[in-house]
Write a structure and sequence with these properties.
By secondary structure, the protein is mainly alpha-helical. The protein is built from 9 helices and 5 strands; from the N terminus they run H-H-H-H-H-E-E-E-H-E-H-E-H-H. It is elongated, with a radius of gyration of 33 Å. The relative contact order is 0.08. It binds flavin mononucleotide. The site of flavin mononucleotide has 10 residues, from strand 2.
Length: 260
Amino acid sequence: MSANRRQYTAEFKAKVVLQMLMGEKTSAEICRSHKLHSSVLNRWRKEFLDHATTIFEADSGHEADQQRIAELERLVGQLTMKLEIAKKASQSFNQLAQRGHNAIFADALEYDFGLLDRMYKEHEPGQVPVKMEELAEHIRSADGFVVVTGEYNHSVQPGLSNLMDHFLEEYYFRPAGIVSYSVGGFGGVRAAVHLRVMLGEMGMPTISSMFAISKITEAIDADGKAQDESLIKRLGSFLDELEWYEEALKRQRDEKGRPF
Ligand SMILES: Cc1cc2nc3c(=O)[nH]c(=O)nc-3n(C[C@H](O)[C@H](O)[C@H](O)COP(=O)(O)O)c2cc1C
């Protein structure tokens, strides 16, 4: 004949062990009121305490999962943003590629070094952040630059200015063409004029033409396609001029080197 053993739920075990641990009842009282043997209650108590840490382990696992999810969400957001930017820039890139250029697109959102603290050249050798070194190499290897600015308070976008300020000698003796845009009708020309002064100080002679795009939201669609043929023609002559200066300055650098 088998003994008829009583079954206790996990909830019941946890409740009586907590009553004992919190001093609400003595172990004798609990055993008496539930007709338990003290060895059973002690075994439950031991099991409870042995497994207490796993509650927090599970928590930290959950926390790590949450952090990972947040990180992945951030990455997806970043990639979506990069895709949008790349789409917007795609048409100008097509023109540059058709002309045989290897154009590298450097966006202040991608190369986010934070507010300028130390310029590229002020970092100890071997201590330069990877993305900063990557951008420095792109700048050094370029024959020319197309610098694109929106207009903030009639001046250059602060994000662009902050990004460019990280470098100096890396730009020297290579020409730049200025592209500006605005939602309104002025095409960001006031920012473009300020940008010309900045680029001059940074060692980039700027070409005479400025490529201003007004009413940007109507001029270019969400896929970066120009809505007006004249914009593409204007871009063509702007790039003709920039290439002319690139070739001229490259020849001079190759033949005579740089004055400083
Ligand atoms: C602080 C601030 C100042 C602005 N100043 C101007 C301005 O002077 N002229 C203008 O045409 N648009 C101005 N705008 C509008 C921006 O040019 C517009 O939001 C544009 O979309 C910014 O380009 P982005 O979204 O690529 O940064 C300003 C916007 C902000 C937030």
